[in-house]
Specification:
This protein is about 30% helix and about 15% strand. It is built from 11 helices and 10 strands.
């Protein structure tokens, strides 16, 4: 089992798997003490909804927001609606919680959720703004183009938990290509669908097996050199065959050849199940697959809208 100290200094997607266990009270207490700040609390504070908010009719918002809300509610049953107050638009999550979807431009500050610093911690609208290209598309990824790498940490905490103990409670056993791991319940169920497709794909092409070595699922840790958590900490990410499929900090190649030659069968199966692939990021993470079904949903909606009517 990985220690808290080793997890905290791991790369965003390291080459060693880790499973946090709350079986040791000492380790659990240390992990709780090491919890980094979740989200940008000034911009994206989540919590009980105030009384002065008003419900927002779906037809009253712009088309992009309607698509976002459609895909968010389809992906996460915990999201029940959209409300507005003086600061912005808020997603209702569960019985009492809310998460910032987008700040009103007139509210001042960094509108549309762009946080201070490097801008990777954003509101929900900004996290969905960059189009994710579905297979077999492998477009170039110029500097800054990393669809899905921007995340609303408030939404992740609301969905999966904001501490090791909270996340640990909702993890379930999962398997990929016969290899065990633990993921969040929703990601684990989705992975089962990808696993079935990949078993068939490997039967047809045994060479795919070398790309399917499990190198990491749930691990409570930060991204290397940063204060924000890795998506692995929420139980929504897996790493596959890290010795073949590198992380951008490990290579000087820009782009990396595998961003274009990585097996389509694997990426397609994972995308179909709701996982995005880090090979489609400028700051590439070719081993990395992350459960973000709202981005896959939006990509399908936008693709269908762009397709000529039959």
């Amino acid at each position: 089992m990985a220690s808290v100290s080793s997890a905290a200094v791991a790369a965003e997607d390291s080459d060693s798997p880790g499973l946090f266990s709350a079986s040791s009270s000492t380790q659990a207490a240390a992990a709780e003490a090491a919890v980094p700040r979740i989200g940008n609390r000034e911009l994206c504070a989540s919590g009980p909804a105030p009384k002065e908010e008003e419900s927002v009719e779906v037809n009253s918002v712009d088309a992009d927001t309607r698509v976002d809300l459609q895909c968010l509610k389809a992906s996460y049953p915990q999201i029940t609606g959209l409300v507005s107050d003086a600061q912005g638009l808020w997603l209702l999550v569960g019985d009492k919680g809310r998460v910032l979807y987008a700040r009103h431009a007139s509210a001042g500050g960094a509108a549309n959720g762009q946080s201070q610093g490097n801008g990777w911690d954003v509101d929900v609208r900004a996290s969905m703004a960059e189009p994710y290209p579905l297979e077999p598309e492998r477009p170039d990824t110029p500097y800054g183009v990393s669809p899905g790498r921007k995340r609303s940490y408030d939404l992740l905490a609301a969905l999966y938990g904001g501490t090791p103990a909270q996340v640990n409670k909702q993890l379930v056993p999962a398997r990929l290509a016969g290899q065990p791991l633990r993921l969040s319940a929703a990601a684990g169920m989705a992975l089962a669908g990808a696993d079935a497709a990949l078993v068939e794909a490997v039967r047809e092409d045994p060479q795919l097996r070398k790309f399917l070595k499990m190198d990491g699922g749930f691990m409570w840790r930060r991204i290397a050199g940063e204060s924000r958590l890795s998506p692995h900490a929420f139980g929504i990410a897996i790493d596959l065959s890290s010795r073949i499929a590198p992380y951008w900090r490990w290579s000087k190649l820009r782009p990396h050849p595998l961003q274009f030659s990585y097996p389509v069968a694997i990426v397609s199966a994972m995308e179909e199940a709701g996982f995005i692939w880090g090979g489609k990021w400028h700051e590439y993470d070719i081993m990395h697959f992350e459960y973000r079904p709202e981005l896959i949903c939006k990509a399908r909606v936008m693709r269908d809208k762009a397709s000529p009517a039959k």
